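Changelog note: in this version the structure field was regenerated for every chain. One regenerated record is shown below for reference.
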Amino acid sequence: MRMDGTQTYLRQFGLTEQPFAPTADPVYFYATEGHKECLYRLWNTIDACHGIAVVLGNYGTGKTTLLRKLMTGMAADPERYMTAVIGSPIPSWTSFALLESIVAQFGLRPAEQSFVAYMEALNQHLLENRHRVCTLIIDDAQNLNKRGQLELLRLVQNLETQQQKLLNLVFFAQLEWTQVLQAAPNFEQRINLTYTLESIQYEEARQFVEFRLRQAGSQPDVGPVFEEGALRAIHAYAEGSPRVIVTLCRNSLLLAAQLKTRHISHDIVVHTIEKTTLPNPEKRARVAAVVGAFVRPPAPVTPAMGGGPRERNARAQQTRDQRAADLLLRSSRTRQGQGSG
């Protein structure tokens, strides 16, 4: 596409912006029941200054989007909240390097570069702001896998008055971090909240897609329409991962624009999966099974049924859809056979 291709493609569907951008934009945050409960519990822990909260989840389950939603809420009330964020700690950091990063994120510059000076500067800063809710948020916390790093975080979180903790710690991490936490009971026992994000179910996935289209300005008579078979194929391949759903929707929408149709059918999704994803026989076989179950074979033509143009077109479309499903199923079986040979 030319440089203006994206705008042309958006105008074709009557969209004001890309509904399936790969960034974690809070405007496109769709709160599933799991996300709502997680946010509710996080805000409760933070506002009550209960200390440590951990949000776990596989890749693409919405952790970073939740993080940004949390930050947006805090930024809206700077008199109440003081927040520092470490986006992705480096696994090789020493405990002092981690402390340096924490101090820097709070905007502090101690005159002396020593562990004691940095801890005193942080403690003093938190005491001076004890009328505010002070929170340190760490994304990709699974990178913190050294005992010294967790011990440093325990010491930092121990800063308190007789009434409250001076600093909340909120971690967003992959499920693999569970083993690291279990190996550090002195830290694990101080965790007030652990919440695990699950993959979303089909109905939530459908609402998720429709929500993002509405946010991008989609109108009923002009905007893209993801048919049920397409959404079921997307959900089956993505295994309920919001990030993968977004990627497949974005690439399917691009193909629909090329074909000049606003109806995204399962055959468009099947083609998109074949052409834009890594070979994965298991996932593709799962998509084929879903599509094969969803698409009914065309009914045979009999004199009693008639054979007008509309009926013939509908039967022809069914035939094409069934053929696409069959091809994908055969392709998946062939790859599985090659993998076992």
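Spot check on this record: The first strand starts at residue 52 and ends at 56. Residues 301-306 have pLDDT under 50 and may be disordered.
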